[in-house]
């Protein structure tokens, strides 16, 4: 082993490395002659071209098998998620903290809501039809233009006091803020089994927290009335079938919020087939948020 | 150097303050014992267990994984301080990485400890007793209590308890073979016969055995100061060399770690410059390291080696150091001891000369008859002398044992003659009883003959028969007639010439020759009642009738010539290194094929051409016999020249230091040297060798301690088996490593694509660990059971500088060919799973930031559906599982193609190695359990996968197999071509 472990001097190492990079005797560059390098490069070029070809072929045939209107499986989408606007996340989730007297603290919330509702102006909704039936809007054929299906109109004025039309500040300065609840779209999902699902907001009752000791029930105004998602917005047929579809919304106006106290509130969507007790997923069928209004 | 052998008894008594009659006083002995320490050899310093254990914890890839764990904990600390929810994932990852290192470390330590324990049982020695005179009384003492100045008594069969200057002897002979390698017992006396204490007759050495006679002596050296002790400390001074396989593994670890670190750092820089958060970049770095490091591989290598070690143990090769398993395979020179390894270590009658003709006797280990012509009357006379003129006897109670295995009381030559006679004639004891002995003169060095007078068993013949044996020339001097075909004829000069020729010829074979003669005493001169007196010798001892010669040798083991020729065809040079005489050494070397029949030494050529030795062209001589005395005066260059120029070399009369020099010389040639030996004198060379092989039966403890391997049956042929196993395991380790490295690319690509294309993470770090330490372990061990592809004993030993375990071709083929195919297959599965759940590849590209954001719970897929964070995470885990399953499925194909490197799988047989199938089923079984059994345990990131996703990668698995078959086909079809050079690993 003595021969292998012989310590080489630095110059010897450099010399060895130089010979590796270019060996004038064998005309080898990095251990290969030029022609050898050409061959090996050509081989790898061909190999990787073929591999890329195979990969593209595999993906192409995959795409061919897919239905353009709906996915093959909805294994994870058994029940819709629920989100809140304004969506301001702090360290512990959604946090809506502001000071009534300082309009800088709530301007952001108002802007978010206004921006969010621009998709619900009559102009934005002009391609959608007015629906009046309170049952599922089932379409087996493509009745819309360009092989699409029709979508029902949802305009912001349906949110009445929380539409931002009558009160552009959404009640924030009064300490009675409007929040908007949205349910996630799932293709061919029929919520509520014939009964319109509705939003229900309560304080979170927790053993080791001070949020729930407020014995007063949470007073909420729901818009539209009763906080329901009308059934004619369901089912959803997918982006390709309903390109102009917009989610129905429910606005909640919190009326009796204790000032200067952090409150934890949960808004559930109540209806058959909507699960809101998944321990792993805090946003499935419900949305929780903390609220603190200072003055 | 001591001069105790030159001193007289009185001077010695004075020097050591002792008395030959009374010995030391107990008090004085205790004092000296306190000063010198006990009379035992200091065992070699063992590495403390804790150091061995810690070495396992930081060796190999462990450092990289520790770094990974440290990074995990650092990022946990930072994230925890920031209050992020996902912080604990990093804590767990760090813990898992640390656990992986600790568990594999414990495993490796356990494996090593297990193989060391086998050896520990060897060194257990029965405490030796010594008979000492102390306080004017004879006492039995434990030998380690002996001190300088003690008077000890020794009798036949005892082991010499210390270095002893003899002051009284009676027919004492010692067996110095463990010290010098001489197989003949040496006689001891009180006389100072040689300047060199090693050669003089009046010193007996520690650990040698007293074969016969009795002696009394003064202890002059104890413990480590004895000659043996000094040799043993010479051995411990020789450092342990790294084994070739350790160097290969180091090279491999270096290579893989180099790849891991450079890719890791490269992508760390890329991700930082792509404005990923610093913390994220560190987490990517950990992922890249984990993906690149084959965590289970070193454990697999250990298991493979210990499996081979077990297989070798069954074939009587006990491996002390696991890595030595492979060393034997890469051996290019074997320096073999003669006595006991190549030979049977027992004198046996090899030739007979009578009726002016040489007969050969059977010298094999289990002879039952002798085939030579026994019809001559001369043979009957000769056999009578052999039987009667012999003091050796079988120990009683061994009638059922084969003759060759029976224990005999008597010296080596007499034993040989006794056994020879027993085989040819049958019950020797009965013949002796029928021919009653009336007088006897035992052998002594002045007479050089042995004589006895017997009654005959023929009741009609009242004559006495005088029989004599001894040194042939002395016996011939006493003869006036010679028996030819049963008739006495006068011994004329022509017959004497024939005797000389035969004597020279047998002597030239390295054999010890004895002459035999007899005389029937005339009845009238020596009646029944004649009082024979051996002191006055009142009977004739000249004008006898010469009958014949017998020659004896320590014959080679019958399996050795075949083993030597196998070594030859395997490209291994066998060199004999012995302490024995050159003539004997050369004769044995010739008979076992170490020196082939046609080759000549320089001296032979000189003799044939009748020119002085100096004029012979040294290059013409293929063989060389080098004497220790010549070696002493040689420069290193001259030694190198001999080792280079001669293919067949015998070193005779070598000392322990010279053995060391020879081994070093061979290593200077770049050879991997195996040394076999049994004596203490061999232990330094055993230690110095790349692999030391000690004899299990004849070997001394010092030799076994210094060796890496022990031959339980002392049989040189077992080495050949070992070489074969060693070569096989090297080939199979190549396969194992190629198999294991391949999937590293499939584990690494996800991270690279993730960073560059910002797709959701295709595979998790924990999932990777489940492949490396779960599904892949049993299959990679299974490759150790693969049979050889061709006759591995017909190729040259590997060149340790060129034939690396992991060469460029292996790495490139695994990484850039098969690894890429696996990655493509796994990515197709990944995209299929996402697409069928709603995320088309186009949506995934660049989606990473939003995908991973905790604040987006309505992430839109390609169909317009909206996903919460958890729903996306669950899909991501399904992706992990799918990626994992694809890699597993393709690793099945990888396992099958790795069965061979050159031959087609169909030549090798798909079902010959059953363990491979165990591997495949375990692989799939573990994957099934992980996906469906543990699919609901969130922390493991597995989900119950839809069944059809198991088959997405199958076409790619088939592609891998086909591609590799094509590769092998071209390699076989066009050997030496560009393809062969680039594709054969």
Helices and strands in order:
The complex is a heterodimer of chains A (295) and B (985).
Chain A: H1 2-5, H2 10-21, E1 22-23, E2 28-29, E3 32-33, H3 34-65, E4 82-85, E5 89-90, E6 93-99, H4 103-117, E7 178-183, E8 198-203, E9 220-223, E10 249-254, E11 263-270, E12 286-294
Chain B: H1 9-16, H2 26-36, H3 49-58, H4 62-82, H5 87-120, E1 129-134, E2 137-142, E3 151-155, E4 163-175, H6 177-180, E5 186-187, E6 203-204, E7 209-221, H7 227-237, H8 244-273, H9 278-292, H10 297-314, E8 317-319, H11 324-330, E9 333-336, E10 348-354, E11 357-360, H12 377-388, E12 393-394, E13 408-409, H13 412-425, H14 428-434, E14 437-441, E15 449-455, E16 464-470, H15 472-477, E17 479-484, E18 487-490, H16 493-508, E19 512-521, E20 544-553, H17 560-569, E21 573-577, H18 582-592, H19 602-609, E22 623-627, H20 628-632, H21 636-645, E23 648-652, H22 656-668, E24 673-677, H23 683-688, E25 691-695, H24 701-706, E26 709-711, H25 716-757, H26 765-775, H27 777-782, H28 808-837, H29 841-844, H30 848-852, E27 859-860, E28 866-867, H31 869-897, H32 905-908, H33 914-933, H34 954-973, H35 978-983
Parallel strand pairs in B: 9-21, 9-24, 17-20, 21-23, 22-23, 24-25, 25-26
Antiparallel strand pairs in B: 1-2, 1-3, 3-7, 4-5, 4-6, 4-7, 8-26, 10-11, 10-20, 12-13, 14-15, 15-16, 16-19, 17-18, 19-20, 27-28
User: Major sheet of chain B, described briefly?
Assistant: 9 strands, mixed
Shape of chain A: elongated
Cα-atom radius of gyration of chain B: 38 Å
CATH topology of the largest domain in chain B: Calcium-transporting ATPase, transmembrane domain
Number of domains of chain A: 2
Helix fraction of chain A, binned, reads: 10-25%
- Tell me, what is the CATH class of the largest domain in chain B? Mainly Alpha
Count of DSSP E strands of chain B? 28
Give the CATH architecture of the largest domain in chain A: Sandwich
* Most extensive protein-chain contact, per-chain counts: A-B, 54 and 51 residues
Distance between the first and last residues' Cα of chain A: 82 Å
The CATH topology label of the largest domain in chain A is: Immunoglobulin-like
Number of strands of chain A: 12
Give start-end ranges of low-pLDDT stretches of chain A. 1-6
Helix content of chain B: 40-55%
**Class by alpha and beta content of chain B:** alpha+beta
**Assembly state (oligomeric):** heterodimer
């Amino acid at each position: 082993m003595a021969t292998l472990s012989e310590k080489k001097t630095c110059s010897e190492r450099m010399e060895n490395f130089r010979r590796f990079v270019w060996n004038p005797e064998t005309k080898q560059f990095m251990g290969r002659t030029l022609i050898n390098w050409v061959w090996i490069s050509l081989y790898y070029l061909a190999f990787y071209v073929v591999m890329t070809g195979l990969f593209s072929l595999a993906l192409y045939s995959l795409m061919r098998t897919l239905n353009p209107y709906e996915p093959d499986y909805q294994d994870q989408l058994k029940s819709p998620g629920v989100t809140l606007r304004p969506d301001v996340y702090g360290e512990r989730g959604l946090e809506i903290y502001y000071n009534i007297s300082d309009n800088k603290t709530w301007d952001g919330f108002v802007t978010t809501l206004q921006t969010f509702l621009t998709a619900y102006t009559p102009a934005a909704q002009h391609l959608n039809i007015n629906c009046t039936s309170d049952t599922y809007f089932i379409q087996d054929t493509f009745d819309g233009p360009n092989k699409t299906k029709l979508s029902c109109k949802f305009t912001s004025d349906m949110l009445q006091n929380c539409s931002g039309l009558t009160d552009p500040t959404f009640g924030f300065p009064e300490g009675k803020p409007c929040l908007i609840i949205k349910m996630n779209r799932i293709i061919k999902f029929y919520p509520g089994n014939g009964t319109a699902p509705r939003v229900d907001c309560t304080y979170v009752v927790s053993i080791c927290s001070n949020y729930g000791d407020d014995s007063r029930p949470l007073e909420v105004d729901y818009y539209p009335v009763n906080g329901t998602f009308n059934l004619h917005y369901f089912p959803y047929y997918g982006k390709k079938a309903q390109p102009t579809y917009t989610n129905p919304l429910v606005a909640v106006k919190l009326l009796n919020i204790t000032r200067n106290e952090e409150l934890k509130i949960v808004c559930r969507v109540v209806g058959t087939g909507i699960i809101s007790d998944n321990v792993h997923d805090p946003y499935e069928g419900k949305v929780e948020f903390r609220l603190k209004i200072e003055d | 150097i001591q001069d105790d052998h030159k001193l007289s008894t009185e001077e010695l008594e004075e020097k050591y303050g002792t008395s030959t009659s009374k010995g030391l006083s107990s008090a004085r002995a205790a004092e000296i014992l306190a000063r010198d320490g006990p009379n035992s050899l200091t065992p070699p310093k063992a590495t403390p267990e804790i150091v061995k254990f810690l070495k396992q914890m930081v060796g190999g890839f462990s450092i990289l994984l520790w770094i990974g764990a440290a990074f995990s904990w650092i990022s946990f600390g930072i994230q925890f301080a920031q209050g992020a929810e996902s912080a604990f994932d990093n804590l767990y990852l760090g813990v898992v990485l640390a656990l992986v290192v600790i568990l594999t470390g414990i495993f490796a330590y356990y494996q090593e400890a297990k193989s060391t324990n086998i050896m520990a049982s060897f060194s257990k020695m029965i405490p030796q007793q010594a008979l000492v005179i102390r306080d004017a009384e004879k006492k039995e003492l434990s030998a380690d209590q002996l001190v300088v100045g003690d008077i000890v008594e020794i009798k036949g069969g005892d082991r010499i308890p210390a270095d002893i200057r003899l002051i009284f002897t009676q027919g004492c002979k010692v067996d110095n073979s463990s010290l010098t390698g001489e197989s003949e017992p040496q006689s001891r006396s009180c006389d100072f016969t040689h300047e060199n204490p090693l050669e003089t007759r009046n010193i007996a050495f520690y650990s040698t055995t007293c074969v016969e006679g009795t002696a009394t002596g003064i202890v002059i050296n104890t413990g480590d100061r004895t000659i043996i002790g000094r040799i043993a400390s010479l051995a411990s001074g020789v450092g342990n060399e790294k084994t070739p396989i350790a160097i290969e593994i180091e090279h491999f670890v270096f290579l893989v770690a180099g790849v891991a670190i450079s890719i890791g750092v490269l992508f760390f820089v890329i991700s930082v410059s792509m404005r990923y958060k610093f913390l994220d970049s560190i987490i990517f770095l950990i992922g890249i390291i984990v993906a690149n490091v084959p965590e289970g591989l070193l454990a697999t290598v250990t298991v493979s080696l210990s499996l081979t070690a077990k297989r070798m143990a069954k074939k009587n090769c006990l491996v002390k150091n696991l890595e030595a398993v492979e060393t034997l395979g890469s051996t290019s020179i074997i320096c073999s001891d003669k006595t006991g390894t190549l030979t049977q270590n027992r004198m046996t009658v090899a030739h007979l000369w009578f009726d002016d003709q040489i007969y050969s006797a059977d010298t094999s280990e289990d002879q039952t008859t002798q085939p030579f012509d026994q019809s001559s009357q001369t043979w009957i006379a000769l056999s009578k002398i052999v039987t009667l003129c012999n003091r050796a006897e079988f120990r009683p109670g061994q009638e059922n044992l084969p003759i060759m295995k029976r224990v005999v009381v008597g010296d080596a030559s007499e034993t040989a003659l006794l056994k020879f006679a027993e085989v040819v004639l049958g019950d020797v004891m009965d013949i002796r009883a029928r021919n009653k002995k009336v007088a006897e003169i035992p052998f002594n060095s002045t007479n050089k003959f042995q004589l006895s007078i017997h009654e005959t068993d023929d009741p009609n013949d009242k004559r006495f028969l005088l029989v004599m044996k001894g040194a042939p020339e002395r016996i011939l001097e006493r003869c006036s007639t010679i028996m030819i075909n049963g008739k006495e004829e006068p011994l004329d000069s022509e017959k004497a010439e024939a005797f000389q020729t035969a004597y020279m010829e047998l002597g030239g074979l390295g054999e010890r020759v004895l002459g035999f003669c007899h005389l029937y005493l005339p009845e009238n001169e020596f009646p029944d009642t004649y009082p024979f007196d051996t002191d006055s010798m009142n009977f004739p001892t000249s004008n006898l009738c010469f009958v014949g010669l017998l020659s004896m040798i320590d014959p080679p083991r019958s399996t050795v010539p075949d083993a030597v020729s196998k070594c030859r065809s395997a490209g291994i040079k066998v060199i004999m290194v012995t302490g024995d005489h050159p003539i004997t050494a050369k004769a044995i070397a010739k008979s076992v094929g170490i020196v082939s029949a046609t080759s000549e030494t320089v001296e032979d050529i000189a003799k044939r051409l009748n020119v002085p030795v100096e004029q012979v062209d040294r290059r013409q001589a293929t063989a060389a016999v080098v004497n220790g005395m010549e070696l002493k005066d040689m420069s290193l260059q001259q030694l190198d020249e001999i080792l280079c120029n001669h293919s067949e070399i015998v070193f005779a009369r070598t000392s322990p230091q010279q053995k060391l020099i020879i081994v070093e010389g061979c290593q200077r040639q770049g050879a991997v040297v195996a040394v076999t030996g049994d004596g203490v004198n061999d232990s330094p060379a055993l230690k110095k060798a790349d692999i030391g092989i000690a004899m299990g039966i004849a070997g001394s403890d010092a030799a076994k301690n210094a060796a890496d391997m022990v031959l339980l049956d002392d049989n040189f042929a077992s080495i050949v088996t070992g070489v074969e196993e060693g070569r096989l395991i090297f080939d199979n380790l190549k396969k194992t490593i190629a198999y294991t490295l391949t999937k590293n690319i499939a584990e690494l690509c996800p991270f690279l694509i993730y960073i560059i294309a910002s797709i959701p993470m295709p595979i998790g770090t924990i999932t990777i660990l489940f492949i490396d330490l779960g599904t892949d372990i049993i299959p990679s061990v299974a490759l150790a059971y693969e049979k050889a592809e061709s006759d591995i004993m017909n190729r040259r030993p590997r060149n340790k500088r060129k034939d690396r375990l992991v060469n460029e071709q292996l790495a490139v083929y695994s990484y850039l060919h098969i690894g890429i195919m696996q990655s493509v297959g796994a990515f197709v599965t990944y995209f299929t799973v996402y697409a069928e759940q709603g995320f088309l590849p186009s949506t995934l590209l660049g989606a990473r930031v939003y995908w991973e954001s905790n604040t987006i719970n309505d992430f839109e897929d390609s169909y317009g559906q909206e996903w919460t964070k958890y729903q996306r995470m669950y899909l991501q885990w399904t992706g992990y599982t799918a990626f994992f399953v694809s890699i597993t499925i393709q690793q099945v194909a990888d396992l099958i193609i790795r069965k061979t490197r050159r031959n087609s799988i169909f030549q090798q047989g798909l079902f010959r190695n059953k363990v491979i199938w165990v591997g495949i089923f375990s692989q799939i079984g573990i994957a099934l359990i992980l996906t469906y059994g543990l699919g609901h345990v969130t922390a493991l990131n597995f989900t119950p996968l839809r069944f059809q996703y198991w088959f997405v990668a199958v076409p790619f698995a088939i592609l891998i197999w086909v591609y590799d078959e094509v590769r092998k086909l071209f390699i076989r079809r066009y050997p030496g071509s560009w393809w062969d050079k680039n594709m054969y690993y």
